[in-house]
Amino acid sequence: MMGGARRAESGFEVRSVYRPDDVDAEAAAPPERVGEPGKYPFTRGVYPTMYTQRPWTMRQYAGFGTATESNARYHQLIKAGTNGLSVAFDLPTQMGYDSDEYIAHGEVGKVGVAIDSVEDMRTLFNGIPLGEVSTSMTINAPASVLLLLYQIVAEEQGVDPAKLTGTIQNDVLKEYIARGTYIYPPAHSLRLITDIFAYCNDVLPKWNTISISGYHMAEAGATPAQEIAFTLANGIEYVRGAIAAGLSVDAFAPRLAFFFVSRTSLLEEVAKFRAARRIWAKVMKEEFGATNPKSLMLRFHTQTAGVQLTAQQPEVNMVRVTIQALAAVFGGTQSLHTNSYDEAIALPTEKAARLALRTQQVIAFESDLTATVDPFAGSYTVEAMTDEVEAAALALMSKVEERGGAVAAIEQGFQKSEIEETAYQNSREIDGGERVVVGLNRFTVDVEEPYEPLRVDPTIEEAQAARLAALRAERDDAEVTAALAELVETAKGTGNVLYPMKRALVARATVGEVCHALRSVWGTYVPSEVF
Ligand SMILES: C[C@H](C(=O)O)C(=O)SCCNC(=O)CCNC(=O)[C@H](O)C(C)(C)COP(=O)(O)OP(=O)(O)OC[C@H]1O[C@@H](n2cnc3c(N)ncnc32)[C@H](O)[C@@H]1OP(=O)(O)O
Predict the structure, then answer these.
(1) Does 49 contact ligand 1 (Cβ within 6 A)?
(2) Which residues of 196-222 are buried (b: 16+ CB within 10 A; e: fewer)?
(3) Which residues are within 8 A (CB) of 56 and not within 5 positions of it... i.e. 6 or more apart?
(4) Is residue 349 a contact partner of residue 373, using CB atoms and an 8 Å limit?
(5) How far is the CA of 191 from the centre of ligand 1 (A)?
(6) Which ligand 1 atom sits nearest the alpha carbon of residue 333?
(7) 259 CB under 6 A from ligand 1?
(8) pLDDT at position 344 over 90
(9) pLDDT digit string, tens, across residues 119-165
(10) What confidence score (pLDDT) does residue 30 get?
(11) Which of 75, 46, 38, 61 lies closest to 111, judged by CA?
(12) E strands, 392-438, in order
């Protein structure tokens, strides 16, 4: 925005010059608010040495079509120098349906890979040593199912589950707010999430059990302050749920992870990341009494803001992505996905995906940003902005608390309507030209260059259905039925559902069958519309 006093995205006024007295008096006392990298309150980063020892994980989100096609893309990404995998699943998988169900029609393999059973999972990771790579899976309501399939395939490869590293998104609360792939009602979703925490603590201790996500709220229009406030409030709800179920905070909190967006408003984004770390450390220490330093560390993945990319003059997106990636790195991210410049149009082409990764590599290996930790520390501007974003986020978190916590606020439609209000304001500012989007409402060209997008093969659905028919013909149905019945009985009681679920998946029950078994006990969530 141009002219007059500038407002930050989070709403506070940005001063044209920051001076020492703009920084909160306390900020001048470093141990309490800024401190040392790797030390409470972790404002300067979670590790003492940060990127000087090891750059962030370059983790490009990818997956489309069949497991075979996605496997080929993962091999290309590894060859291009990516050092973490990130799986995108198609919508039927994310909603817990098989590819041959009526409701899946038209969506199989579209926004990610179609996974129906352990056989697809085996193909997905063919030739990838799961003991050596860390894998993130963007899966929420059926997170337990895909996690167990991953474990089963890793065990087939001879990998000890205790050594497996990776993350499941598993953040259903934000699905009710912004993303939409929920299945069960909140209470049952929280029980399943707690079961996952407990199972991972026992069996997969190096696995990050949840990726509490603000990214999708930001894509839906949330400001930076709203993004971190509602995400941290969801985090608090998960911690309360697990403690209420009898888990000790230091048993599961070290494996909670976060996921945020990074926009082109670089200074405010850096402030946002620093503020989020500080708030979380305090909450974990003061409200939940966590004592393990790892329980206090907010570790996060970042994806550059897809919502800021334009279909017009798509190459300009490379510049946006570079600025967004810089903000994430200045902000101390642990893992990063840089969007491809063509993502506003279609699934990324191979060339665009490679360029996106190259952007990270230039920052990591050609710039001097990995030479020192948190270079913005002590900047009057960034320290003052960190305080401002923190104050704005804490005010919103109090409003969530006043409504009874994240779940109660979701049921009242609070977070969703706050975000929609901001989204509406943003669109008005873009339409009115007050908010400049290069190539869209200013600096446009008369004729856009033609662009050939990547298309997903439409015959995938038939191929998946044929594979499912073959699987159902071959497997021992009695074994599957018995295992699913055991899962249903456990879901009715209080036992951990992941153990019978694993037995069903090993017997080749499908993703849809397992999710239907749980639906039969827990039902499905129907949102109450709030206007
Ligand atoms: C939009 C789209 C959609 O809607 O569909 C999506 O959602 S896409 C969403 C895609 N989501 C994702 O890709 C989420 C990715 N998330 C993650 O990778 C994780 O949750 C993460 C954020 C915690 C990052 O994990 P990571 O393994 O990559 O990185 P870490 O920071 O944990 O580092 C790996 C190991 O190296 C160690 N390590 C790293 N750096 C240092 C350092 N400087 N000094 C000492 N140790 C270090 C860590 O302690 C850790 O070991 P140790 O573990 O032993 O301590």
Answers:
(1) yes
(2) bbbbbbebbeebbbbbbbbbbbbbbbb
(3) 328, 329, 333, 334, 335, 336, 360, 364
(4) no
(5) 25
(6) 22
(7) yes
(8) no
(9) 999 999 999 999 999 999 999 999 999 999 999 999 999 999 999 99
(10) 52
(11) 61
(12) none
Specify the amino acid at residue 432: G
334 lines ligand 1 (CB under 6 A): yes
153-162 long-range contacts (CB < 8 A, ≥24 apart) are: 153/118, 153/121, 153/122, 153/124, 153/125, 154/130, 156/122, 157/125, 157/129, 157/130, 157/131, 158/131, 159/129, 159/130, 159/131, 160/131, 161/203, 161/204, 162/203, 162/204, 162/205, 162/206
Listed in sequence order, the residues at least 6 apart from 303 whose beta carbon sits closer than 8 Å to its beta carbon are: 61, 215, 259, 261, 262, 336, 337, 339
The CB of 50 under 6 Å from ligand 1? The reply is yes
Alpha-helix residue ranges (DSSP H) falling in 52-208: 67-79, 91-94, 118-124, 143-156, 172-174, 186-203
CA of 165 to the centre of ligand 1 (A): 9
pTM, whole model, 2 decimals?
0.96
Evaluate: CB of 262 within 6 angstroms of ligand 1: no
Using a 10 angstrom Cβ sphere, with 0-12 exposed, 13-18 middle and 19 or more buried, the burial of residue 529 is exposed
Of 495, 521, 504, 487, nearest in space to 195 by CA:
495
Residue 53 CB less than 6 A away from ligand 1: yes
Cα 216 to Cα 176: distance, rounded to the nearest angstrom: 11
Cα–Cα dist 20/6, whole Å: 20
Give residue-wise pLDDT tens across range 498-511. 999 999 999 999 99
Amino acid 458: pLDDT: 77
Token pair recorded at residue 31:
């141990």
Please report where in the chains the tokens 């997903």 appear, as a residue. Answer: 456
Q: H or E stretch including 484?
A: helix 477-492
**Residue 506 CB contacts under 8 Å (≥ 6 apart), including other chains:** 118, 152
Decide whether any atom of ligand 1 lies within 6 Å of the 301 Cβ.
Answer: yes
